[in-house]
TrEMBL record:
This is Transcriptional regulator. It comes from the Bacteria. InterPro entries: TPR-like_helical_dom_sf.
Amino acid sequence: MRRAIRFPEVVAAHRMRIFETFTVHFKQAAKEVAQLDGNASLASVYVARSTWDRWMAGDIKGLPRPTTCRVLEHLFGEPADQLFGSLEPKGTTTAPMAGDDSSSPHLAAMESFRLADRQLGGGHVYRSVVHYLNTVVAPTLFGAADRDEDSETAFGAAVVLTEMAAWMAHDAGRDDLASGHFNRARRLSQSLTDVTAGANVMAGMSHLALQTSQVDAAADLARSGLARLAAGPQVPTLKARLHAMEARALAQLNAESEAQRALDFAREALALARTAPPSRWVAPFDEAALASEAASALLDLGALKAAAKEAEHALALRDASRVRSRAFGQVTLARVLLAQGKPDAACSVGMELLNASQSVTSLRLSHQLNALQADLDPYRQVREVRELLSRMTATAQHRRLLLGSLALPEGPQ
């Protein structure tokens, strides 16, 4: 019999609403408890998805097993009987303030999926996003009779989560699924009064076009996004991202002066971000992201000294929790160092990259690692290069097995 318990609220407050995010933190807590209690068996305690689903639905009579309770208490800092205790009557809770979007489950889900994606890679999280869209968001969209504020929020979340699914599919090597999700997100964005959601989708589509060597289309999409953004509220972070995508495309088209100008526009736009209110429908884009895009553009232009500076700046700004972003940045820096004729320095970056990215399930990252391995091969007479190539060969097999176990389903989603 289901009942209203505190567990879902506590999970949401700790930003672990998504199963994959919760699992990462639970495993770490289990290891810590095993060390604290001197009981190695506690490190193997886990929570199955079916159990998690029951807890989130309040379908639990008593308490979980004592070992599970011990880990949960360490993770959340509360006794298990409180975690699984009944919620207080609604009359005793504080009502959310008018216009407070923090009460929207869709917006909370967006943040949870973003966090899980950054830590684990799209292969782990894609199915959860699609499931949430199909079972939670879709009934809200098509069951609403009026376009009120709540339905606007639901449509906006649908756009963002559909675009997120597109990136996760691309990250897992399924560009066919990614393209379908992007097109669906673009259509959904037309139902919103806020044009920034549609412009944000175009930034993502431009990025995907770059990744799939459709350079002219990437430039056109970035410019279309800028044109759409000009008709709505100013969002400096999105404007900067669109200019950065345009610069990446222009660099691949060998339009050096135009690419440099687009990068300057991106920097000017991002400088205004501190004083502008954020948009809830816009993907995060910060100084580190711009530096990373600039490094890639400058590498394509052959401006190696400037590219190295931007790549190092991006890595300096990214903390260790952004494993996948750092991995892409490290690949770029290693490529720049090789182009500068510094294979030993490139190997140092490559070793750091392999050590930090073992748990990231990203076919896109695997492809970049394979390309880096090919770039390193001409330098195999250097001892450090031989050692790195050996490590890359060994880890490639592990990565293939991991990615194979997370293969996305065939057909449209």
